[in-house]
Amino acid sequence: xxxxxxxxxxxxxxxxxxxxxxxxxxxxxxxxxxxxxxxxxxxxxxxxxxxxxxxxxxxxxxxxxxxxxxxxxxxxxxxxxxxxxxxxxxxxxxxxxxxxxxxxxxxxxxxxxxxxxxxxxxxxxxxxxxxxxxxxxxxxxxxxxxxxxxxxxxxxxxxxxxxxxxxxxxxxxxxxxxxxxxxxxxxxxxxxxxxxxxxxxxxxxxxxxxxxxxxxxxxxxxxxxxxxxxxxxxxxxxxxxxxxxxxxxxxxxxxxxxxxxxxxxxxxxxxxxxxxxxxxxxxxxxxxxxxxxxxxxxxxxxxxxxxxxxxxxxxxxxxxxxxxxxxxxxxxxxxxxxxxxxxxxxxxxxxxxxxxxxxxxxxxxxxxxxxxxxxxxxxxxxxxxxxxxxxxxxxxxxxxxxxxxxxxxxx
Length: 411
Fold this sequence. Notes:
The protein is α+β, with helices and mostly antiparallel strands. 51% of the residues lie in helices and 15% in strands. It has two domains: 3-45 and 281-407, no CATH class; 53-279, no CATH class. It has helices spanning 3-11, 14-46, 71-86, 138-142, 159-164, 178-184, 246-260, 272-279, 281-315, 317-325, 330-364, 374-399, 404-407; strands at residues 56-63, 91-97, 108-109, 129-134, 146-149, 173-177, 194-195, 198-204, 222-225, 235-241, 264-271. The protein is elongated, with a radius of gyration of 33 Å. The relative contact order is 0.18.
């Protein structure tokens, strides 16, 4: 194989060669990042969230009556809602929440030791800790265990003191997750310690609250016993149901709640499993789009490689005939045709490095995406090599039928 001759041949077709190289390198970049996106999306969907996702149904509603501006009325209707929902067939328990898990943003605030210095600097995610306010069964309803201390009780409810007492004198009892407890009090046990949001009386087992947060920060959560009774904000109920009753309970929730008080808008009734799927719909949708594009690019690569090889054989017909006349074997001619394709693949693999990295950096600006690794890159190059070689086989085989006499007749 004469590398100089191959390069000279490619330089004679600069435009076609350049387009094919660009296409091959982009295909490599697409394939690598498609695998990363798909793998990441599947991992997120299959990653256990450590609470009873499959058995939970949530409902979001907004009060439309001015009567709900009275906190006592608000609490009364909420308690009636919970009682009616709990009486439905298949329901294990129900509770109110100020927000739902599996979230981006939400009701967040800083959490720090009560004696944290004024000029101290909190780690980033301790400034955005999800704060959940529910009843005493809020964690149990989600299926989250208490691993130290105790659960919240009815006596921990600060709702009445908040709306009818002195708010400045309230010292609520709270529960925090394991990872959050270690982050706030890294050098001593957190149980019993006072924070700027209350005293820690229990530590809950870690569960995924914010799936897009890095590392242990996805487990950060604080729970208090409080019913936020403001008519201008969306209410959230989460219902735990028996296996096989999710759809049945889901279909009855709106009517059950409106039967208690009809002056409310039902915003959304949704299983927690559907909420999880919708949360990652951007990731899965982008992965599917890139998958389709990659398949199309591979198909175009096969067609382009075939056309490029066929054109090469046609243009080099006389040269091949001369080589045959000088004693070149059929296998030598096939090797020559394949060599040009493999040289193109080699050059494209070098350009593909920039394509892979550039596309990955571009995607990282809009979504969370893992960094590419050498194995994925090598597999993508192998796919290009195999598909290009298969596309080149027919033109290469046709060269073996070129007659030395007919190829040199016009010389």
